[in-house]
Amino acid sequence: MTAIALRNLSISYGETLVVENLDLDVAEGECFGLVGESGSGKSTVLRGITGLAPDWSGSIELFGTPRGKRIDRSFAALCQMVFQDPYGSLHPRQTVDATLSEPLAIHGIRGADRLVPEMMEACGLAQHFRFRLPHQLSGGQRQRVAIARALMLKPKILLLDEPTSALDVSVQAEILNLLKRLRREQNLTYILVTHDLAVVSFLCDRLGVMRQGRVVEVADVAALKSNTMQHPYSRELVEKSANRIPA
Amino acid sequence: MIAPLLDVKDLRVRFPTATGPAEVVRGISFTLGRERLGIVGESGSGKSMTGRSILRLIRPPGVVTAQRLHFEGSDLLAASEREMRRIRGARISMVMQDPKFSLNPVMTVGAQIGEALAVHERLPRRQIRQRVLDMLEAVQIRDPERVFGLYPHEVSGGMGQRVMIAMMLIPEPAILIADEPTSALDVSVQGEVLKLMNDLITRKGMGLIFISHDLHLVSAFCDRILVMFRGEVVEECKAGELDKATHPYTRGLIASVPRLDEDRAELPVLDRSQWEQA
Q1: Which of A102, A150, A186, A234 is an S-S bond match for A229, by CB 3.0 to 4.6 Å?
Q2: Considering only alpha carbons, which residue of chain A is nearest residue B260?
Q3: Between vectors from CA B187 to CA B182 and to CA B188, what angle results, nearest 5°?
Q4: Is A74 strand, coil or helix?
Q5: Cβ–Cβ of A198/B262 closer than 8 Å?
């Protein structure tokens, strides 16, 4: 089944058109990677889907249900987002417990006492972190809290905007393993935005290459691994990633 | 062998905390000649603190001690603030991680680079302008005249980092300390910025300390590598021989990086507990 269907999607910030006539289908349970240089509009696609960039036209459908322009609670329960910077995306004065309980309170779900520790467990956070504040956690632990918060409402879709680029390589490995395991356990659908092709290679099934607001190529990850991408720009990107180190 | 540019022995950096002093750099020693030295480690391993302490940029209540911290034979720890100001920028300079936060937002690019030169040399204004334009050209900025008059928010990340490099190299220092110079940049411009730094450094015969958490980058770019963990150097090796590294921490770091042709189902994760007591 198609989890996410974007048709003729254009998103603009004021006068500037950032994403232009985008068509994209992501199947249920799939992990789709969106790659491209900064300014190519890949994060804006995610912001458009969640409603953070309200100036869009075209259609956004999740599991066959079109998204309206307004804030929609049932939509939020289906689709959540994890941001790049774990230092900026958590409220500095709220404990982990408060952060994780809030989505439940908004949606009128009871049993936070049971659900919060369960989700912390699933995301690899020890119970003694429950009443800590973000500044008492490391970057990797904060990103785990951000992922746990996104999963509190048991969404089916997770939008990941550079979830590991602010982290060390060793911590990145932990978070990537966590994302991979959660996807398997909860049958989640991911869209992963990143500029690191190696991360796509590890986590994703398919990828789309974006340039100047358009998707220039959609390919299987196998094509990335064997370096048989078709579009010249995709090849250029792969080449640059492989040789970002000067000889 | 000629005397090294920089000679560090038993460097320690301490900060007082509520639970007693915390030592973030614990007695590291190294020398630097006209070569590229890489320092790698995770965040919190003390690699940036090492770079900053060489320039004496650690402010009280932080305390820096060393048995020896010599630059071209003179003792940096004994130097007065006034002498240090003459060394910083002119003799040893530092490129920071993020051009967005380290450039002055209310000065034009040209004025900032010019200032770096004017502070250390007495030159007529026209000559300063010319040197700045030459330097912008050297860092491969296409239209130096236009960029000269731009403010930092008007340039892209890659260009901002080139501006930083231009500013740091214009007084022709002997040592450049680069603290994660490419981490904030796109993969596609990282290569260009590194190549540029490499060219300028080899041409001028400078010493480089390259601080990064990216092992592969450092191993390909530098001559020699120090691996830091919890304030100590756990391994020192030639860059080409990183695959022969013996310390489990180094091996763990290498293994945890995903590859472009990744086929492992799960990435190996560092088990920190095994060294923490050691």
Answers
A1: A234
A2: A198
A3: 110
A4: helix
A5: yes
Query: Considering CB atoms only, which of B43, B198, B268 is closest to A246?
Result: B198
In a domain, B250, yes or no: yes
Chain B partners of A140 at a C-beta cutoff of 8 Å? none
Topology (CATH level 3) of domain A2-233: Rossmann fold (3.40.50)
* Segments forming the whole domain that contains residue B258: 1-82+211-278
Whether residue B244 lies inside any domain: the answer is: yes
Q: What is the pLDDT of residue A81?
A: 93
Among partner residues B186, B221, B262, which is closest to A202 by beta-carbon distance? B262
Average per-residue pLDDT for chain B: 85
In a domain, B48, yes or no: yes
Angle between helices B109-118 and B157-169 (to 10 degrees): 20
CATH of the domain at B15: 3.40.50.300
Q: Which residue of B has its CA nearest to A223?
A: B261
The confidence score (pLDDT) of residue A236 equals 85
Mean pLDDT score across all residues of chain A: 88
Of B194, B213, B270, the CB nearest to A246: B194
Is residue B1's pLDDT more than 60?
A: no
Q: Enumerate the domain spans of chain A.
A: 2-233
B272 falls in which pLDDT band (50, 70, 90)? low
Chain-centre distance of CA A31, in angstroms?
10
Residues of chain A neighbouring B223 (CB-CB closer than 8 A): none
pLDDT digits (tens, 9 = 90+) for B31-68: 998 889 999 888 778 888 898 899 888 888 889 999 99
Q: Give yes or no for residue A246 having a pLDDT over 60.
A: no
In a domain, B132, yes or no: no
Q: How many angstroms separate the CA of residue B104 from the nearest CA in chain A? A: 23
Q: CB within 8 A of B75, min separation 6: which ones?
A: B68, B69
